[in-house]
Amino acid sequence: MTRTEPGASRTAARLAARGFDPLIAPVLAVRPIIQPAPDLSGITALAFTSPNGVAVFADLTPDRSLPVFAVGDVTAERARQAGFTTVTSASGALADLAWLIASEATGRVLVPGAREPAGDLDALLNRAVETVILPVYEATETRAKAPADFEAVLAHSPRAAKAVARALGRDGGAGRLAVAISAAAAAPLAAAGFAEIRTAGEPTDAAVLLALGNPAARV
User: Fold this and answer.
1) What is residue 192's DSSP assignment?
2) Could you tell me the residue range of the domain that residue 187 belongs to?
3) If 0-12 CB within 10 Å is exposed, 13-18 middle and 19+ buried, where does residue 78 land?
4) Over the stretch 106-126, which tens digit does the pLDDT of each residue have?
């Protein structure tokens, strides 16, 4: 398990319930960007591209009055847990979030997220809606070493996949399976020489586990 905490532990619990022996080795750590409470005047909605964005933004302001558009169901649930009451999930990827915002949002939409986002929401919106990008966290590499003995690795983002490939080096994935949450996350893994790289059918943790298969399967 290479994703950031607390997501890594949640996925590990699901793996254990299915009979796997999960090994947690997050390759990225989320660090909040210190800044004052955001000015929400003129903002009509919030858009979150990850649960991390929700968690960090919620610590910056007590305001929960604005409607929320979330990229997926996990992010939407994190927003509800944080106290937001009007939350709509795109139940998909960044392109689905862009379509949802373009269809339902009006005015200026604040997008709290990573300093280096995995995708370009503004480009996908193509000026359909005015967005205000607010970096609230950054993901830094932990330089965690891979466990000595593992059969498969899960990559939940392109940035994590790049860190995995660097950690393993050339042919470090030989004889092993990699499962990526998206095609963008699958691409960097080729450098590590995995015996097989699978891509989840949709960008969700559940789809990653479905692509992984069952413990009896071997590469």
Assistant:
1) G
2) 7-29+141-212
3) buried
4) 999 999 999 988 789 999 999
CATH code, domain with 97: 3.40.50.10090
Sheet arrangement for strand 196-199: 152-155, 177-180, 196-199
Structure-derived torsion over alpha carbons of residues 191, 123, 202, 84, reported in degrees to the nearest 10: 120
Residue 55, amino acid: A
Asked if residue 185 lies in contact with residue 156, where contact means CB atoms within 8 angstroms, the answer is yes
First to last CA, the chain: 18
- In which band, very low, low, confident or very high, does the pLDDT at 175 lie, cut at 50, 70 and 90? very high
Does residue 42 share a domain with residue 131?
yes
Query: For residue 169, what is the domain's CATH number?
Result: 3.40.50
**Is the per-residue pLDDT at 173 higher than 90?**
yes
Say how far residue 123 (Cα) sits from the centre of its chain.
19
Q: Give the H/E segment covering residue 81.
A: helix 73-81
85 touches 109 (CB < 8 A): no
Predicted confidence (pLDDT) per residue in 123-172, tens digit:
999 989 999 999 999 989 998 888 878 999 999 989 899 999 999 998 99
Q: Walk across the sheet containing 130-141 and list its strands.
A: 28-32, 130-141, 108-114, 43-48, 68-70, 87-89
Per DSSP, the three-state class of 15 is helix
